[in-house]
Amino acid sequence: MKRYLWMTALLTQGLYAYTQTTLTGMVTDAEDHKPVPYVSIGVTRTPNGTVSNAAGIFSITLDNKVTDNDTLKFSGIGYQSKALLVGELKEILKHGPLSISLNRSVNQLRQVSVTSKKGHVKIVGYDKNSKLFGLGFYASGVGSQAGVIIPISHPETNLENVSFYIVDNPFKQLLFRVNLYELVNNKPGNNILTENIFLHVDDNRTGKVIFDLSKYNLYFDNDVLLTLEWIDAQPSAPNTRLVVAAAVFGHTWYQQASQSAWTKKGTGLGLSVKTVY
């Protein structure tokens, strides 16, 4: 009998019967004023979060627990984060849609010397192809993410590809963002990427998905957390869901929504990475 664990706490947002506030607007680049797509937006450590779309436009509905003194945080890869008071944004919204500008970040990944010498290959993470146990990703969970720790045992270990196994896929198109986080006291810290890495899945695809990471020159000396962030899904009906193979044992780190608190779950999302050192 198939067993699926529907990660509703991770990938859906609650329904509230009380007063809600919806903030809408666009995120732009402070330098060239162009829209910034797929920015993570949310009230820190709460389930109130979303992601701007391909045109930089966002709409976020805040539940009744969010006050004017809470802050809404905007984080984009390659940009400095910005946090603004909810009350201040409400006042601005009275005069029209919000316009949020982000400054570019100057952070860079550590440069390494790439040689033609072939190293040792090791598959890490949870390499699962079983159809009997899976984790469910709901279409309504935009901005949620889940992933596993990638152990790094040798200096300058390169992440060559990431793979996972799709058990059930009713979607014509899916868009994930691959994220990499440093670990601080064995917990997720800052995103250490300097550019977006998008992973597309089309045409109701099922089975093994292998995504090439080699062109991004991802070299690390320490353990990192690799996640898949749910960016977009078509069709977007709230109850439509993707099922990815998982390990009964292991651990998954997840966020329910953009900027929400990280939680550790005792089930291993079936993500594996080919590493070379």
CATH topology of the largest domain: Jelly Rolls
Oligomer: single chain
Percentage of residues in strands: over 45%
Name of the CATH class of the largest domain: Mainly Beta
What is the H/E string? EHEEEEEEHEEEEEEEEEEEEEEEE
How many beta strands in the DSSP annotation? 23
- Please tell me the total number of domains: 2
Major sheet characteristics: 9 strands, mixed
SSE class: mainly beta
- Which residue ranges are poorly predicted, with pLDDT under 50 across at least 5 consecutive positions? 6-18
- Rounded mean pLDDT is 90
C-alpha Rg, in Å?
19 Å
Describe the global form. globular
N-to-C span: 40 Å
Helix fraction, binned, reads under 10%
Q: How many separate helices?
A: 2
Proper CATH architecture of the largest domain: Sandwich
What's the structural blueprint in terms of helices and strands?
Blueprint: E1 3-6, H1 8-11, E2 21-29, E3 40-43, E4 49-51, E5 57-62, E6 71-75, E7 82-85, H2 86-93, E8 98-102, E9 121-125, E10 133-138, E11 145-150, E12 157-168, E13 173-184, E14 187-191, E15 198-202, E16 207-212, E17 219-220, E18 224-234, E19 241-247, E20 252-255, E21 262-265, E22 268-269, E23 272-276
Parallel strand pairs: 1-10, 2-8
Antiparallel strand pairs: 2-5, 3-4, 3-6, 6-7, 9-23, 10-19, 11-18, 11-20, 12-16, 12-17, 12-19, 12-23, 13-14, 13-15, 13-18, 19-22, 20-21
Polypeptide structure, described:
There is one protein chain. It is built from two helices and 23 strands. The chain is mostly beta strands. It folds into two domains: 14-102, Sandwich (Immunoglobulin-like); 118-276, Jelly Rolls, CATH 2.60.120. The N and C termini lie far apart (40 Å).
